[in-house]
Amino acid sequence: MSSTPRSPEPRRPGRLLRVALGASFLVPLVFPACLTPGYPLAPSGQVDIRVHVAGSLFAADTLDEAGKPVLPRQQPFETGVTLFLAEGGAPAYGGFVTVRVDPPEALVLGPYPKESDPTCQEIEGAFRCTASSEGYARFVVSSQSDWSGSATLIVNWAEQMKEKDIQILPAGLPDSATNFTMLVAGLDESLDGARVLPTFLALKCTVGPLPDDLGSKWRPGAIRSREAFVRATPPSNAPGVVENAPVIVESLFSEAALSATSDCAERKTRLRVLLGSTGESERFFLCFSDIGGEADFAVTSGQKQLDPGPSVLVDPEPRLLRVRALQSVVGTGAGGEVDLFEVSAFDVNRVRIVMPVDLRIEGNEYLSIGQASVTLDKEPNPATVISATPNYPGTARLHVTPRLLSSPDCASDPISVVEAP
User: Fold this and answer.
1) CATH of domain 178-314
2) Would you tell me which CATH number, out of the four given (3.30.2130.30, 2.40.50.140, 2.60.40.10, 3.40.50.150), belongs to the domain 39-169?
3) Superfamily of chain region 320-418
4) Following DSSP, what letter does each residue of 172-231 receive, concatenated?
5) What is the pLDDT of residues 168-195, one digit of tens each?
6) Is residue 394 a contact partner of residue 421, using CB atoms and an 8 Å limit?
7) From CA 109, how far away is CA 98, in angstroms rounded?
8) What is the pLDDT of residues 245-254, one digit of tens each?
9) What whole-number distance in Å separates Cα of residue 244 and Cα of residue 237?
10) Cα separation of 83 and 37, whole Å?
């Protein structure tokens, strides 16, 4: 049985259209590279700004050669910021705003470090924040300079603007810190105040004229120094602000300096120290020359300043003790006490200074004095004169030592006591 071949069925236009449309769905959609997801927040949108750190930030204390802050730094110097973007009472998913700081040098804007897909970043020269599906966007502001003052965080969208002030304090203690003080060890307390006493290690004896040069007022290896440190108590609402807070200690006296070591080999008039986590600084040293005097210091840290600053009385270091006999011979019939000795103490500048001394007569059976100690006077007053009573013929000397010390023992030339005619 034969069959007649069927002619091909004509194609319907609708089928061709369906095929064409199906093919079109397989073509991938390609967006220009310059487009970014999101849309500008509408004029009716709302933005809420929340700064994570409730208090102030701290500026950098010192910068390196590249203008970057030197570490370690006082905390907090940065804070996270959260924006909530909404439209019509609902999260504005994909809506974006721009953020800037006034003045620009006050703070640096950056992405939030804990986000794998940053919601805030710099795009086309502007710092842009795009709301997540919950409406949130987060970023970080940080102080990267020594600028301090009141900075304004400004959020812009569709000719709308919202601001938030952030206070940046100079590095150092805030005004709310308490018990700010500098403590100095090894001082002798007197009626006049805390003192640094002389050591008498450089003291020499003479019976004649003064040498032209008595050495340096800063004797290498023998400079008088006292250990010191600064401490403060943090405010109760910010216990961590004292750590790494810088303190500037400055000598206001030409004969006092500051050093990191007790030998004072390297001396400065201005020293920067950092407070530790307990509120105490590392130890440093106050250095004093042999001239002595009243040494005043200024201590400042951020908004805190010691007023009045610490003051230390420094006794001059005697360099020369002169014990001079005014006569070489005296008669027993002189009639009571006779001015026989002149005693003076000199500093490194060959200037007469105050010095308490003990007196002793060698040969006191021949010559006697009525006092065992005396305080030598300073310029411009006359030199201290010691009177003695000649008793019997013989030879005697006056011995002078620093008060309560046995050396150096400075003796006068001998005086001969003779029988009066």
Assistant:
1) 2.60.40.10
2) 2.60.40.10
3) Immunoglobulins (2.60.40.10)
4) S--TT-EEEEEEE-SPEEETTEEEE----TT-EEESSPPPS----SS-TT--EEEEEEEE
5) 999 999 999 999 999 999 999 876 778 9
6) no
7) 11
8) 999 999 999 9
9) 17
10) 18
